[in-house]
Amino acid sequence: MRSWLVRLHRWFGLAIALFLFVAGLTGAVIAWDHELDAALNPVFFIAKSSAPALSPLELANRIEAADPRVQVTYLPLAAEPGHTLQIGVSGRTNPATGTPYELSFNQLAVDPATGEIQARREWGAVSVSRLELIPFIYKLHYSLHLPVRGGIDLGMWLMGIVGIVWLFDSVIAIALAFPSLKSWRKSFMFRVRRGGYALTFDLHRSGGVWVWGLLMVVALTSISMSLTNPVMRPLVSLFSPLGSTPFSDPGLAMPPSPTASTLSRERVVALARVAARRDRIDAPPGGLLYSPLLNTYGVGYFEPGNDHGDAGLGNAWLFWNAQTGKPVGAQIPGRGSAGDIFMQVQFPLHSGRIIGLTGRILVSITGVVVAMLSATGLLIWLKKARARRRSAAGTKVRVRRGTVA
Length: 405
Prior knowledge:
By secondary structure, the chain is of the alpha+beta class. It has a domain at 1-27 and 145-243 and 338-405. The chain has helices at 2-30, 33-40, 42-45, 56-66, 133-143, 154-177, 196-210, 212-226, 228-237, 265-278, 338-344, 346-351, 356-404, and strands at residues 70-76, 85-91, 107-110, 117-121, 148-149, 152-153, 285-291, 296-301, 316-321, 327-331. The strands form two sheets. Strands 4-3-2-1-7-8-9-10 form an eight-stranded antiparallel sheet. A hairpin with a 2-residue loop joins strand 5 (148-149) and strand 6 (152-153). Helix 7 (196-210) crosses helix 13 and helix 8 (212-226) packs across helix 9 (228-237). It starts with a helix and ends with a helix.
């Protein structure tokens, strides 16, 4: 049995090692994406003026009026003091072609006091320029920048499958790490003085044992984050009912009516304030999301600068049909079925933000450990593969000599 587990661990590990090496290192970096991005690109984060801020809703209207090709798709509803508004945009449909205008950017940094656009960038572009480096690393982490084909995000499917293999391989690895209960202490030790192959082996085995629980959490949540709708939600729904939004269940999104107009952002924010009182949401409306594809508005509730959620289960989000204003879903942390709460906890666990700064530090360390386990696993395989080749070559020589004799 053990020999079969060794083979499975070897081939599973080889199949996913490179992907985990990249995911581990990039995950260690993006645990601090906001801080690193701000340090690299102060022009994108720090407002030039210190005058009182204008209404973000008014600034969004100005942006669209100044460039009719542009449609605001994400709008912070307040800015951190001294900071820019980072506004998401996309191209409107070109009436001449029926396709969206091609823009060279999808994110704007706007001075909230003057409306000046301080910088533009394409978030997630394949670019290592200073302005786009951190978003490049972020997207590399979860999709490897692979394309979408036929409505299928190849990168997220690939990383989801890697997560599934990793989860099974982690169970195999912990079984192999304890060959004997009598010598269990060896599975936690590092032969630092021996160095060389002995240390490499211990880093791989004992290093994995020390953080095994964290590795299992990261592997499971990576599956949830990559394959939310096609895999995780159907599985969870077998055990617990799940609430839906147009983003988790596109069937809830009603196609836009050609005779109806889209609600104004001002109207949606007004609806959001009323809904917050009704649903006892303490935080103010913090961000406005618009999806033309799903004909949906979403409003997130958070204080300025807390769009990712500093701790706990994240921020509340409510959703409305963009033309009728009819509620089409809600995601309120800590509320709903057991399955809803399980799904809510996935990103906070994966990012470490569920326990704030401490969790982010743990995630960053875990990312480095994942990369180390991948590298040491490859080194161990290479050494054993060379030994097997030498052994096979020696056997052939002995056979030939025996035949000649």
